[in-house]
Design brief:
It is built from 6 helices and 5 strands, in the order E-H-H-E-H-H-E-H-H-E-E. With 131 residues, it is an alpha/beta fold.
């Protein structure tokens, strides 16, 4: 596990584990001084809430969680990195989910380690905090 500093960018997978009360995730998240979430992840969380059988419960859960996070917006620099990553993946023939490319681009742009349980991020040159 390679970590730079005491901050992390959360992938949706880690937040879902947190919502399921994973003690390991709770302890790890409590060890960080700064927790970042990309606007892409926020969108994925709200999609999951609205698609669930109890949207109000999940929206309240998301809002309570995000109070303790710093939200990172996508911008032109993120878009450039996204294009580089996607073209590299295409050349290698190793696609990953579209939103995960945006999340990876955010991690690279802001130089924040990505905390994830998704194995396909290992295909990219990222500073990862694997679960």
């Amino acid at each position: 596990m390679k970590m730079t500093g005491n901050k992390c960018l959360l992938d949706t997978s880690v937040i879902i584990h947190f919502f399921k009360n994973s003690e390991q995730i709770v302890q790890l998240l409590n060890s960080f001084e700064e927790i970042y979430v990309s606007s892409t992840v926020v969108g994925e969380l709200y999609y999951g809430a609205y698609a669930s059988s109890n949207p109000k419960k999940h929206i309240d859960q998301i809002q309570s969680f995000l109070i303790n996070c710093i939200t990172v917006q996508l911008d032109i620099s993120t878009s450039i990195i996204y294009g580089q990553i996607k073209s590299q993946l295409k050349r290698k023939g190793t696609p990953i989910p579209e939103n995960d490319i945006w999340i990876a681009a955010t991690s690279i742009e802001h130089k924040i380690p990505l905390f994830t349980s998704d194995k396909h991020f290992a295909l990219l040159e990222l500073d990862l905090i694997p679960l």
